[in-house]
Specification:
This protein is an alpha/beta fold. The protein has a single domain (3-252), classed as Rossmann fold (3-Layer(aba) Sandwich). The protein has helices spanning 3-6, 20-31, 43-48, 62-79, 104-125, 151-174, 205-217, 227-236, 241-252, and strands at residues 9-14, 35-40, 53-56, 81-88, 134-138, 178-184, 187-188, 203-204, 222-225. The strands form 2 sheets. It has a 7-stranded parallel sheet with strand order 3-2-1-4-5-6-9, with helices on both faces. A two-stranded parallel sheet has the order 7-8. The longest helix has 24 residues, at 151-174. The radius of gyration is 18 Å and the shape is globular.
Length: 254
């Protein structure tokens, strides 16, 4: 790293920074002295977070995402920032309640927000990441096992995990930008508050932010937490498929 680079303020961009894990992570990074570029749709909430800068846009609106990319490039140049991390955290969760009457519109909505929109964010923001920077993609520990009603959400997050693995290979060949796939267990957020089932070993969004910060700093490929919970899921994933169906499908019976 050159002397000029060392003198630049270290910046992190976080999408979905207006609630839940994104909001807690934005505040955590700011408290650690990072210049935080907080992104979200809610301008009022973004204005309240004491961070370096905010970008207001909807990740599902391609034009807005591209404009945010242009605005980010200008802001980095003006403020002489070094964008060292991009955390694409924004996402949604909806469940398929009646699998026979499969809700294709719901499926499409979730895939669009959690996967397609992430592709547009990568296109807009990855070119601004500094050499040696780290890209964080928000997946889920739900990718370790199939869960009832999670066809849309699980599929979108499994795709994110694969995207991260593939990106990591291609970026390693072309640059020293690293990739982290973030797989939280149950975190107490407005999104999980809608869940109507038991959520074991749930942690706070502040605890999640701390783990994300540490994992990104260590340039870990897979950042999963809480460890006890994800370890159980990973062990269960080794069971034969018929055992898993008995174990998990029975739980789904109302």
């Amino acid at each position: 790293m050159s002397h000029h680079q060392a003198s630049l303020s270290q910046a992190v961009l976080i999408t979905g920074a207006t609630s839940g894990i994104g909001l807690a992570t934005a505040k955590f990074y700011a408290a650690k002295g990072f210049y935080v570029i907080a992104c979200g749709r809610n301008e009022a909430v973004l204005a309240e977070i004491n961070v370096g800068h905010s970008l207001v846009f909807d990740i599902t609106d391609v034009e807005q995402v591209n404009q945010a990319g242009i605005a980010l490039k200008q802001h980095i140049a003006e403020k002489q920032l070094q964008l060292v991390q991009v955390i694409l955290n924004a996402g949604t969760c909806e469940y398929i309640d009646d699998v026979i009457e499969f809700d294709a519109m719901l499926f499409s909505r979730v895939i669009n927000t959690n996967l397609i929109a992430v592709g547009h964010c990568i296109s807009a923001f990855l070119p601004q990441l500094a050499e040696g920077g780290q890209l964080g993609l928000m997946s889920s520990s739900a990718t370790y096992l199939p869960f009832p009603r999670a066809e849309a959400y699980g599929a979108s997050k499994a795709a994110i995990s694969y995207l991260g693995r593939s990106l990591r290979l291609d970026l390693a060949a072309k640059s020293d930008i690293g990739v982290s796939v973030i797989c939280p267990g149950f975190v107490n957020t407005p999104l999980t508050a809608k869940n109507d089932f038991t959520m074991p070993m749930q942690i706070s969004s502040d605890q999640a932010a701390q783990r994300i910060f540490k994992g990104m700093a260590l340039r870990k490929f897979e950042i999963h937490f809480p460890k006890r919970f994800t370890f159980i899921l990973k062990c269960l994933s080794l069971l034969p498929e018929r055992v898993l169906i008995k174990l998990l499908a029975d739980k789904a019976v109302k």
